[in-house]
Design goal:
Radius of gyration: 25 Å
Strand order of the largest sheet: 3-2-1-4-5-6
Strand content: 5-15%
Number of helices: 15
Largest sheet: 6 strands, parallel
Number of strands: 11
Helix content: 25-40%
Order of helices and strands: EHEHEHEHHEHHEHEEHHHHEHHEEH
Shape: elongated
């Protein structure tokens, strides 16, 4: 049961997107009370269904699946009939596809003047790259994700999650709420142009701008901090040391300085001093943390006020006491699967939805009557 206080409890959204950005954006709004109708291709459905039930379920629980062939005139009319009674349409085709189908924004407002259309695309609806193909790694590369060094020994490596897709989905969800509220006040909808590239660029640009001045010697960038890094331990595991404030360096020295007196070098006592000796400080810390196993370091530093963390394995993550206490993850034992709850705690609460994964086209007949 959805909470009565939720401003989205009577909001209805058509999700005509697939894979991650659009479905994640609409799943966030669903958790805040919205009703989401997922329009999928007849026969094959969302491409994520081909990647396995768990992948599809991740962003599509509790949506109502309607199967339509938008190349068919009768199904296009069925889509427009849905639009009459909805607040927003989210689509993730390349620019021009919806317009060519007769389902562009100008077509939708003829049916529902207050409709909000959110188009999520790789490079946006305009610009020289707008028609280019791309996925998460392409947007990261072209937005300068790797242009700003952050480690003494920086490497270009693939992130563990689809960072740019999540950036775009978050901006899309926020923009949809604002646009829907505006449409309800004014009676006029609007077209939201969400570029995945723009979204991640808004995160990377400040650091990349700073990095311009250090391209010949990237390690000299102030964003490269020798003691704020990832270090390998004796058993091939990794720890993260998040030292930024100088007080934590002092704590580290108090704790380890007797065993490793090199840490007490006066040149390292201030941040400015350590920045002037980056490679030396970083190499020293690498040697120190290679001297013990992860378990030994975790035990040794457990009660020290230090931003020290183990790099958790997947199996360790789901047993973590803090993760369990916060309740962000919801387990479905019968599916051997999880769902991620909305990660903000509302004081009035957000009750769980049923968590049902819709079968392809399950609600077609009832929703498109």
């Amino acid at each position: 049961m959805k909470p009565e206080w939720s401003c989205l409890k009577d909001v209805k959204i058509i999700d005509a997107s697939q894979l991650l950005p659009g479905p994640h954006a609409t799943s966030l709004l669903l958790q805040l009370g919205a009703d989401v109708i997922k329009v999928e291709r007849r026969g094959s459905g969302d491409t994520s269904r081909e990647l396995g039930n768990a992948i599809f379920a991740q962003f599509n629980r509790d949506k109502r699946s309607v199967a339509l062939n938008l190349d068919d005139s009768a199904d296009r009319q069925a889509f427009l009939d849905l639009v009459r009674d909805c607040d927003a349409v989210v689509e993730g085709f390349r620019p021009g596809v919806m317009k060519n189908l007769g389902l562009g924004y100008d077509d939708l407002v003829k049916v529902n003047p207050a409709i909000v259309m959110c188009s999520i695309s790789g490079f946006g609806q305009t610009g020289p790259y707008s028609a280019h193909a791309g996925h998460d790694l392409n947007y990261l590369a072209m937005a300068g994700y790797w242009a700003a060094p952050t480690q003494v020994e920086s490497k270009v490596a693939r992130p563990g999650v689809r960072v740019s897709d999540y950036a775009a989905s978050s901006y899309a969800a926020l923009s949809l709420v604002v646009a829907i509220m505006s449409a309800r006040q004014s009676g006029a909808g609007q077209h939201l142009d969400v570029s995945i590239h723009d979204s991640i660029l808004s995160w990377t640009a400040p650091s990349a701008w700073l990095a311009k001045s250090f391209e010949k010697n990237p390690v000299m960038s102030p964003m490269v901090m020798p003691e704020n890094d990832i270090f390998e331990t004796r058993d091939g595991r990794y720890i993260v040391l998040g030292i930024l404030e100088n007080k934590f360096w002092t704590t580290l020295c108090d704790c380890l300085g007797e065993a490793f007196p090199q840490l007490n070098d006066p040149r390292f006592s201030t941040r400015i001093g350590r920045l002037a000796c980056k490679k030396e400080v970083n190499q020293l810390l690498k040697q120190i943390f290679l001297s013990k196993t992860l378990a030994k370091w975790s035990q040794y530093l457990a009660d020290v006020d230090l931003p020290f963390s183990s790099v958790l394995r997947a199996s360790e993550l789901f047993c973590d006491t803090h993760v369990r206490a916060r309740g962000t993850l919801r387990e479905f034992a019968e599916e051997a699967a999880i769902a991620v709850r909305f990660p903000v705690k509302f004081s009035l609460g957000l009750p769980d939805t049923e968590g049902k994964v819709p079968a392809l086209g399950e609600f077609t007949s009832t929703t498109t009557k």
